[in-house]
Amino acid sequence: MDAIWVAALVRALTAGTVVVLASVLAEVLGPVWGALIISLPVTAGPVYVFMVIEHDAAFVSAAALNGFAANAATGLFLIVYAKRARDRALMSALGPAALAWIAAAMAISVVSWTPGGAFLLNVTVYGSGLLLVRPARLGTLAPSAAVARPHPRDLLVRAVAVALFVSAVLALSAALGPSLTGVVAAYPVTLTSTFVILHRRVGGAAMARLAGITIQGVFGFGLTLLTLHLLVRPYGAAAALSGGFLVSLIWSVGLLLLQPRTPRAV
């Protein structure tokens, strides 16, 4: 029993630390860098790392496939938030976005997905999203709208929230089964906590741009899950995780290189 509690504590601390480090970099470096960093698999990544330790390859493969499909729900979450954040208060933007994710995830969870079907769903959602949020994504922010430095209390709250989420998903995974585990693990905890903390501090216009840029990065996270699904059975967990994280990193670096240059980084 002691070993079980120690393992759970290590998982929680690891997940919380990873997310806090990533979010600090995101908030200090500004919207473009921040969007790319928070779209990396900093929350779901630890979930899948520990998942491969506790479950077999078939479980991880099925969870990753359903997580890839559910990544489309995160795209819808970002679209709704980006469209509403510019001139609305936090809950008027985040509330409908969260409800959109829940509704989409519920619909996705009852479908038997194939890699091709999940890929088509993601391309449709994120392709539409890029067009819908283009004004927010390409907007120029005033210097006063730069991302503020994080407060230690905010970081603690974020670390605890992520640690509890990761622990809960892993604890319930056996009862939920691989399909539902993959869908639940796809919930954008890092994005939600970032929006809650920053919306009031930097304003809706800055957050709309952050969400608009993040849409590009989160599609890459979906490719990470697709890679994990395709590689975990034939090549094993270590190779599949390494390949998935490499895909996410390459995607984010490519997006960074393709970002339009502006006179002033904001």
How are the elements arranged and paired?
Layout: H1 2-29, H2 31-38, H3 44-54, H4 57-85, H5 90-109, H6 115-132, H7 134-138, H8 152-185, H9 189-202, H10 204-235, H11 237-258
Helix pairs in contact: 1-2, 1-8, 2-10, 2-11, 3-8, 4-5, 4-6, 4-8, 4-10, 6-10, 8-9, 9-10, 10-11
- What is the average per-residue confidence, as pLDDT, rounded to a whole number? 79
- Structural class designation: mainly alpha
- Provide the succession of SSEs: HHHHHHHHHHH
For the secondary structure, the number of strands is 0
Strand content: under 5%
Q: Sheet with the most strands? A: none
* Residue windows where pLDDT falls under 50 for at least 5 positions: 1-7, 140-147
| Radius of gyration based on Cα positions | 18 Å
C-alpha geometry: globular
Helix content: over 70%
Number of helical regions: 11
Keywords, separated by commas or semicolons:
266 residues; mainly alpha; disordered N terminus
Please tell me about this protein's structure:
- There is one protein chain.
- 83% of the residues lie in helices and 0% in strands.
- It contains eleven helices and no strands.
- It has helices spanning 2-29, 31-38, 44-54, 57-85, 90-109, 115-132, 134-138, 152-185, 189-202, 204-235, 237-258.
- Residues 1-7 and 140-147 have low confidence and may be disordered.
How would you sum up this structure in a few lines?
With 266 residues, the chain is an all-alpha fold. Helices cover 83% and strands 0% of the residues. Residues 1-7 and 140-147 have low confidence and may be disordered.
